[in-house]
Protein 1
Amino acid sequence: MGLSFDPDQLTLPIHHLIGGERIAAKGGLEMRRPSDGKAYATCPVADGAMVDRAVESAKTALKASNWGGLRPRERTKALQAWADLIEQEAETLAKIEAVSSTRPVGQLIAGDIAVTAEQIRFFAEFADKQGSDVVPTDDSTFGMTLSEPYGVVGAITPWNFPISMAGWKLGPALAAGNAVVIKPSEMTPFSTVYMAELAVRAGIPAGLINVVLGDGPVTGNAITGHPDIAKVSFTGSTRAGSAIMENIARCGVKPMTLELGGKSPQIVFADADLDKAAAAIAASVLFNAGQACVAGTRLMAEKSIAARLIEAITAILKTARPGPTWDERVQYSPIISERQLARIDSLVEAAKAEGGECLTGGHVMNTPGYFYAPTLISGVDQHNPAIVEEIFGPVLTVQTFETEEEALALADHPVYGLASGLFTRDLSRTLRFARALQAGTVWVNRYSRSRDHILPTGGYKRSGIGKDLGREAYEANRKSKSVLINL
């Protein structure tokens, strides 16, 4: 069966989901499809009262189901059943997300949805394998640390990978015994609603996942500042992360996990496999049209091979073909909104005004929807806007170096430290750079995540606090208590 579909014939779940029930809401924020710019829906905006209702539903569901106190294997089974249903409903999920987002329907089936199901199963298996510890004390006492769920966790996800990000938040929080109130982006909310409905169908007690639709200033602030939400997890921009920290501090104190912006370097030495390096670097810019916080948008090439590498990357970038996300043949994504498209274009123009030269691209594509041509800019220094700013689009800069010290100096960014890439065959150099690069992730001879979900992701500097994925994500959804008993 083909995956291509008519977006005008699609029924969307335009509602909040609280206690397993669909809560209708009128009006809201106008939504436009990135692929053709057509207005197609409005996103409701949950106010403080609606968030209160969602939190109460979460608390009630936790108590009624004893979710955090069940035999851990029961949580595992329920989450595994949910993952199975996500896979079974992959086509419906993919269509709901593709219509409003930048994710092509074919990539959703092959990548986002399949990986999300895997990740939920991965976290489900932690439920009965991570727990409390007996700790060494003297013979007259018995000491232990008890691990407990927080209770109600608040989650806010971005627009660029809606299904994947919902899985990042919901999987570890539920496996750890919590309930969740989640707000997806107002630009791409509906696939998260459908995922939550699938969770209820799979047997996860209604109310453990509550989805409230809305924007950051109203709905997001109500979640992060809510006194009964014990922990917050957010993925998005550094600016929004700072606002969340400020709101939490103003309303009280609670732990948070923040995965924020990035401006990641990719360093290529002359001994690298240049064809593989070029393919990986170009793919990292073409994937989702560069709309990923880990996008490797700053290239540093050893001077002796720079020209050859640039030629190979440019050739790949020129192959990008725009098209609507509901066409299964399409691989290149639109930009999320007209506003973001204009921002990308203005930053490229600013980079050119400061001495940058566009070797390819550098313009809005002449096609329906919000598409920007894959762009490669040379002639930039460390103060150029294309180096400093997180553009969040398909824009790659290139600089050259001659020594390892120079490469590291160029790679270091004053604000961001989310991810980095290194291409070399030299093992000693690899280990030196793995230690020296100021980033939460170092990819070597590749630039992409794998399906090794045990590897955590998170940033240095202003790229975030804490980790998603890995054991760390599960542990971030548990709190510990020390117990010391006199015998």
Note: Residues 7-260+464-486 form a domain with the Aldehyde Dehydrogenase; Chain A, domain 1 fold (CATH 3.40.605.10).
Protein 2
Amino acid sequence: MIYIISGASRAGKTLVAQQLAAQKGISYFSLDWLVMGFTNGIPEYGVHDLLFPDEIAERSWSFIKAMLESMLYSDIDYIIEGEAILPELFTQLLEKHPNKLNICFLGFTQVDPNEKMSSIKKYSTGETDWLSDKTDAYILDHIKNMIAHSIKIEKSCAATGLTYFDTSKDFTATMERAISYLLDE
């Protein structure tokens, strides 16, 4: 089984992936690492960390899809998490491999941007957190962009029949529901 956790930045994807990995005893791969590989290793491909998530997803999908199909062929259990997957792109792969993929999307559509910024600052992981050196104005702009991205993901999930979890309210309980959903193969 390949578990896919996608959605908006700061919606809890990494936390869900880490907890799922601990419970299942399998590894996870962050698509953020892949994007940074493109950004710093092969910038001529036009995939870089300054794009909006849907642009990254569209530009990198053929690569990610081929990677996932190779993993499916190898029949390994793995967790993939990151922003670079959109519901409308994923449906064809899910139809082809319905019993080998389990996917959910996370976002936040109903948060107060200032409260979300306070939460980000409170739970930031220090120097390794890419927002740690950003201004409040930058963080607020990022949050507003992720709210818009979350709204788009939620609508696309509804249109494609894929599962969306909104972490706007009761973040921890919503993440636990997402983990339970992914474990219920």
Note: Residues 2-183 form a domain with the Rossmann fold fold (CATH 3.40.50.300).
